[in-house]
Amino acid sequence: MPERYLGRHLGRFRVDSNVGSGGFAWVYKGYDPELDIPVAIKILKPQYAGEEAFETRFRTEAATAAKLRHPNIIRILAVGREDSAVYFVMDFLPTGLDDRLRIMGTLPETLLIRLGMDVSAALAFAHREGVIHRDIKTDNVLYDDHGNAIVADFGIARALSGYTEQTGTNMVVGTPQYFSPEQARGQTLDGRADIYSLGVTLFKAATGVLPFQGDDWYEIARQHIEEAAPRPRSFNPALSRGMEHVILKCLAKDPADRYPTGDALHTELVQLLGRATTPDGDPTVVMPTPAASRVALEITKPKRKSGFQPRTLALSAGLLILIATGFGVNALKARDAARESEKARDSTVAAAPNATVPVATASAPGIDADSAARNSIAAANPRAARTAATRKAVVKPAGRVLRVAGPADATISVDGTVVGRGTWHSESIVAGMHHVVVSLNAPAACGAAQDARDVRVVEAGTTTVQFSPRRCGSFALDAAPSGGRFVLSAGGREIASGAVPIAQPVLVPEGSYALHVSAKYCADYSGTVTISTNAVARERVRLICQ
Predict the structure, then answer these.
(1) 135 is known as an active-site residue
(2) 135, 153, 194, 451: which one is catalytic?
(3) Which of 66, 176, 355, 534 could be joined to 217 by an S-S link, Cβ 3.0–4.6 Å?
(4) What are the E-state strand segments in 482-535?
């Protein structure tokens, strides 16, 4: 159980709390007393830690990944074993791409492009060093405090694939929703497989949905191999054609048709950033909710014969995500039989274009005509029914918008996740209370640089909130006689006060203030002071005393 490690020390690292679980490891927040920083600790689950061959390969791959020093690759700080715990330690980054998408629905285009630039730069560097990630997905993209995308878990998938090859374990290494076609076939991979998975990640961030969906990994992997990716703009019309082109090129079935390197992708994204616009040419500021349906696909070249063999896919070693598939030969035969039956039904419907599909009326209590129609369609064409269900699931609620306005260079975060800069709005945020923070880059002691409040988003309508964080400057006062007192105020509200002389300048939010200096047996002094950002306002006051 994951609780067994809480409160323990692994090497110098203290394990504080369990924050997640993956297919092969538990994830904890910990503490490094030497560096005085929080850390993330991944501890292998017992079924993997007990395998000597896997442990050796895991530690070797983790050590290789630790040598990847790049601004967009997470730092691995240590790899080790303590009793039965095999672990590695990395920087703790609490916010990830999944968190942003949960709040925002989709990324605005400028943030989408920056996401692609950051991850492609990380991939380009790793590929030059001979390391393929093999599991690029939204889960493995984190964000640092400055909003830079950071890629995690380099080298881990390679260790797992080696384990499955050695043991013959029928497991998938990677995540089927993000598989490249060659990964789904169990073929040898190069860096272009990571480019494909990044394309899936960008598709999800741009539209809020995955390009390929299904009831199980078998169906999803088949689509990766056989079906052309839908056009992202059919889900998000606000996406520029240039960004759509980038995503679809990443998702090319043939690796030769994708960007050859992360550098090539990064270069195109840099060029695209300068002209990130909507189809009308206006700056992209809206983050639309995923569209309700998938339009007809435009296939520009004949579909290749895939050579897809279900048994090859199901039995390929080095294929799954740390979950045993449980598919035996009988299950595959049943699956194939079901597919043949479904194809027969589809072809029957297609062969009779003028036939009328019967639609039941709402004769029974609680059953409307739409439901009856869906049931009739489902009986005739299960694929159409699944598409209709997906369409119904992604319909956005009408008219719910949160608008946040702040200074142009301010960072906006919602519920702890950075979502934008300056002015931001979302049409897909969940109704209810949200903690919104608008902050400026300023010294930590400048409390005014952060404007935070709880905002209630109504179920229908627009919620608009104006935030006004301010940077700080310094105030230095040379006053005599000593033993007096000064007060800085604005609008009758005291901002700063203390005894004179002031030992060192006082940090004060920028703006104009009333200055009042007083001392016993002396006439009071009143004046005004203007505080400017990153500057010191110096005042010299000599009181007239008895």
Answers:
(1) yes
(2) 135
(3) 176
(4) 485-490, 493-499, 506-509, 511-518, 525-531
